[in-house]
Amino acid sequence: MRHPRFGLHARPLVGALMCTLTLAACGPAEELDAAQGVPAPELGEKQSEVVYGTDNRQDVYAHTNATLRLRAQQATVALMNPSDFNASNPNNVTFTGAALGSAYNLCSTERFRDDPTSAFCSGTLIADDLVLTAGHCVTSASACTETRLVFNYYRTAAGSLQTVTTADIYSCTSIVARQQGTVNGQNLDYAVLRLDRPATPRFTPAPVRTGNTALTVGQNVAVIGSGSGIPFKIDSGGTVRDTRSGTLDYFVATTDTFGGNSGSGVYETSSYTVAGILVRGETDYVTSGSCRVVNVCSETGCRGEDITYVYPAIRAFCAATNNGNTQLCSGLPPPPPPPANSYAYTATNTNSAQQNTVDKTLTFAAGDVVELGTCGVDGAVVDGDSFLRLTNSAGTEVANNDDSCGGRGSYIKYTVPAAGSFTIRGGCYSSGSCGGTLVWKVTPGTPGGGGSSGSFNFSASNTNSAQQNTVNQSVTAAAGQVIQLGTCTVSGGSGTGDTYLRLYGPTGTQVAGNDDGSGCGTLSYLTYTVPASAAGSYQIRAGCYSSNTCSGTVAYTIQ
């Protein structure tokens, strides 16, 4: 998750792209110089970190404050890739990152030159199985899967690292809440990650600052993390420059922090509570002859380091989990009661909602438009990566969904072809654990039917996946109606071979297509909701995958 350079072994491409595209303060990376004294940048601008005045960074063993040492030992994590360490001996994990001096071509005068550079970001344990970090550190479910959260990454004496075992290393199972960008005028960068198991009582969460109020200018703050990827350092010499009290999205301080400190917990030293998350700052290192040195600014110089206030992250977490953590959410308004048309569930090892699911059976009328989800319906809540399936009274699956609403929630919209009972199956992606509140909404069909249905037979060959030589059928649909069509799933649909269906709108542009429908093998099924401005004639085009030959009956309903 950082750009390979100065002898560092190459990282996975996705990590390099993340740092390149988000342009945020990632791990040890080639940093861009920032002009001194400029206004705080938007999240899209790449900035790193720097030393202000005296370099106040200290190893954990060397810091005089017992409470800050405890926060480093018990609540701080280093975010790493599996390739950043060697766990072949589970009782003595070693770290494979290049030494700081060689990784950055540092001059012999620079500090911590022999430290390994294994971390790409930092984080803080804030509950039994929750870690707070920066949103640009873990940007997707796949990035979460590849991330390891490592405790005990600190020195116990000069030249000695605390022994790390595999019991100190956790996996990220889901992103519970995340933001990276400007939302409602707030420039935010945070993520709350769920671990694969509770870290307590082995480790102790750090207390989090409550209340949505600004810090004060001149207030002392401390930061703990893996600047430049090295073992945890404590800097307790920072002061707040700008509170941004008008927006309460981030504050600016003079912390001595580096790339790799992204996601670090920033503490109020008056209470030792986490007040913010380190996200952006000044350039790390500058050239001095043939080598590089730490970039040093005066206490009042340069632009300062940007630290996202912790409150927006906690507020988002509590909203996503219906105030699911008493300690973190106790000061927030109680969540609204779940809708009557809902049920809460938790599940694990459901094989993508094919076993161990939590089910609900409902009866719908012909033409009913059913919406259901852990997102996309008012009152729906998701915690983790949900997976939903809908089956009819015969046990045949008619719809499913994994990821919707721009995240890991699930949403299905289905028009009922014939009255009957249907079963919602609530589960989780793959073998993971998840939960939430599943809500359904039913919009009755138009009185007297208000829709239409039909079918047509076809036999085709060499259609280039339904782009030539197709068998076509035109239908008319009104705004808001749902078109369902298929050689499977829709009553009357059938096929032999590998069918392929496409649907074209009134302007002649394709609006939907399907090759292999869920649970249909090589047959096809799709559904499409007509937008408000797109009523008119639609054309169904039936063909075969690639240049193959196939045939069947395309059935459709419009409700």
Automatic annotation (TrEMBL):
Gene3D superfamilies: 2.60.120.380, Trypsin-like serine proteases (2.40.10.10)
Keyword presence, Lipoprotein: no
PROSITE patterns: PROKAR_LIPOPROTEIN (PS51257), TRYPSIN_HIS (PS00134), V8_SER (PS00673)
Single GO term (MF): peptidase activity
Keyword Oxidoreductase found: no
Superkingdom per UniProt: Bacteria
Signal peptide as annotated in the record: 1-24
The protein's Enzyme Commission number: 3.4.21.-
Alphabetically ordered keywords of this record: Hydrolase, Protease, Serine protease, Signal
Sequence ranges assigned to domain Peptidase S1 in this UniProt record: 118-281
GO biological process, one term: proteolysis
InterPro entries assigned to the protein according to its UniProt record, in alphabetical order: Glutamyl_endopeptidase, Peptidase_S1_PA, Peptidase_S1_PA_chymotrypsin, Peptidase_S1B, Trypsin_dom, TRYPSIN_HIS, V8_ser_AS
Family: Belongs to the peptidase S1B family.
Protein name: Serine protease
